[in-house]
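Notes for week 9. Today we move from apo structures to complexes. The key idea is that a small molecule is not decoration. When we ask for a structure prediction with thiamine diphosphate present, the ligand SMILES becomes part of the input, just like the chain. The input block below holds both the sequence and the ligand string. Read it once before you look at the output, and try to guess where the molecule might sit.
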Amino acid sequence: MPRKFIELSEKIEYLSILDENAKVDEALEPKLSGEQLKTIYRYMLLARRTDERLLLMQRQGRLGTFPQSSGHEAVSMGAAFAITADDWQVPAYRELPGMLYRGWSIDHFMLYWNGFEEGARVPDNVKDLPICVPIATQLLHAVGIGMGMNIRGEKNVVLTFFGDGASSEGDCHEALNFASVFSAPVVFVCLNNQYAISVPLSRQMHSETIAQRAVGYAMPGIRVDGNDVLAVYVATKEAVERARSGGGPTLVEGLTYRLTPHTTADDPKRYRSDEEYQLWLSREPLKRFRRYLEKKGLLNDKDHERLEAELDSEIKQAMERTEAQIKAEDLKNPTSMFDHLYKDIPPTLQNQRDEFARYWESRHKASDKQNPQKSGARTD
Ligand SMILES: Cc1ncc(C[n+]2csc(CCOP(=O)(O)OP(=O)(O)O)c2C)c(N)n1
């Protein structure tokens, strides 16, 4: 029996179109209209400013712990822009830009990160699943949706996201494998920000890229500059078109960096050097895309000021609306936590719900007795 080699396609393509100095490779530039380019920028900026406002709210005690998305705008928005409203998006938890673009309101995020189920309620006519915090579990949901589309003979596509840390989870392997075996129309986008909380990539995996894992699952894989929204868009669009025409799944890796702590509860100075941070700050996605639009005559300083003012006013209005909503009685009753998992609640859960409702009622009666002047007004 001879020893021989089995040929595999082991070359992993890397794509960059708009570099950190806003120099564009015209041969690779996608043919998007001025309006489309401005829409992409609008949602990237809206997400950045919302993220900054959410951080202020968290620091003021008006929001719970949450993971910021700053730095990830190009991966999220470039990919989301490559699907249609009839396709599905299955996010992890850093896809604020793409989710806002798909129709989620800022209110959703303010409610969600304050612990209210209403923040996870999918808006009407939006084909997205809600934010998913347990890492990599959403990938299996995405593959299930994709396999369902195949069974129904639908020509839609599922776009799903995960982090470099999530790539080490068994769920990720199972999802990639199933998607490949069943030729599910799923585009897996990895936001490789090079850290899983404090664990650097070098402690996460020994391979050079995440994209090359696609070889093991017999699907196309590509690494893109994840701070270049044009490259993310082009690579995702190609993958979407392949999936739509029956070509199965693709793995797209966007190499990027988070410009913030992992969540508001973390201190990245303990595991990332300032030098590294400064290097990646100089490569961040918004600045280069703004310069690209300026060079094309699509944006000037005055337009930008106007846009910022418009977006800030949207964010402020959302904050006022949600804070009023949170004070309203219906959001103050935590029995709603039982309401969203099952259409018909199973008896065991119904018992727990009833027990909790009795406890909650008695707590209020006790609190009304202690504060008779507040009788009738809830104090929690
Ligand atoms: C199943 C599961 N295990 C552990 C955690 C705790 N956890 C939260 S974020 C995180 C790291 C995720 O890193 P990565 O996938 O790279 O995503 P990033 O946060 O960097 O975007 C971990 C382990 C979790 N959310 N879910």
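The CA atoms of residues 13 and 129 lie 30 Å apart.
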